[in-house]
Amino acid sequence: MSGHSKWATIKHKKGAADAKRGKLFAKLIRQVEVAARNGGGDPDMNPTLRTMYQKARDASVPLDTIDRAIKRGTGELEGVSYEEITYEGYGPGGVAIIVEALTDNRNRTGPDVRSAFAKLGGSMAEPGAVAWQFQRKGIVLVPSEVDEDDVMMATMGAGAEDLSLGGGFWSVTCEPGDTAAVRTALDEAGIPVESSDLTMVPTSTVDVGTIEDAKPVIRLIEGLDDLDDVQNVHTNADIADDVLESLGD
Q1: What are the tens digits of pLDDT across the range 189-213?
Q2: pTM of the predicted protein model
Q3: What domains appear along the chain, each with residue ranges and CATH number?
Q4: Of 71, 62, 64, 63, which is closest to residue 42 (Cα–Cα)?
């Protein structure tokens, strides 16, 4: 899953940049609200909400803001009703892309996503054309300075399925419902955690080996991710660490 771990890293770094621009808070609050609506407002009984709650706290979203989002999700406070929609498509070089959106107006979001694909060198696909190439998983990022054996020992009994290194982080992969348990196990072992999230892991990857090939792929994915209604963009592009570093520079 090396391609996935690298992409998880670039998503994490982009999230930090989004936070500085104020974009990330709105997306995280919406994710918390929908998680509460779908599974209830108690994080101990709703693993998805627990993961989204922690993700929001990692980004320094204020506690009262998170609590209000949960109450909107459970109906205790009035709020907008968001619909979960997944779009599928292809990017330059044939890489597969999944776009996850939360929207109160699909007639706005659909054309926005389609326009971004068209303008940035991609194409939309029919539902199911891409999704079969991915699996829903939880992922927890740990700084690469931590010893591999320590990470493995801490997480094996908590549900960890895979451990890979890329982009300066260990990526611990698990079933979605085990994400909070894996993070808790790391916390209890005194191991620092950079982030935890739910994601789509590709079952196979497409090698994007040069800067010239990677630039249009990154441009498309960032363009999609910048749309207000888009929450997550997943890809099976496998971009080498040195290429990612060059693009980052």
Answers
A1: 999 999 899 999 999 899 987 889 9
A2: 0.85
A3: 2-74 (1.10.10.200), 83-132+206-237 (3.30.70.980), 134-202 (3.30.70.980)
A4: 71
